[in-house]
Amino acid sequence: SNMDRQLLYVGMTRSRKKLVLSANKSTELIKLLESHPS
Questions:
Q1: What is the reported pTM?
Q2: C-alpha angle with apex 15: 9 to 3, nearest 5 degrees?
Q3: DSSP at 33
Q4: Dist. CA 17–CA 29, nearest whole Å
Q5: Which one, out of 4, 10, 16, 17, has a CA that is 20 to 30 A from the CA of 26?
Q6: Averaged pLDDT, 20-29
């Protein structure tokens, strides 16, 4: 049904946002580690 499609779409966009956020966090961590060599 149309409602199911809408719920699926919302779930996909939410999980995509989470993926993008976690990817941004990991790249920031990598940059921090690279700019501060131990």
A1: 0.58
A2: 20
A3: H
A4: 18
A5: 10
A6: 96
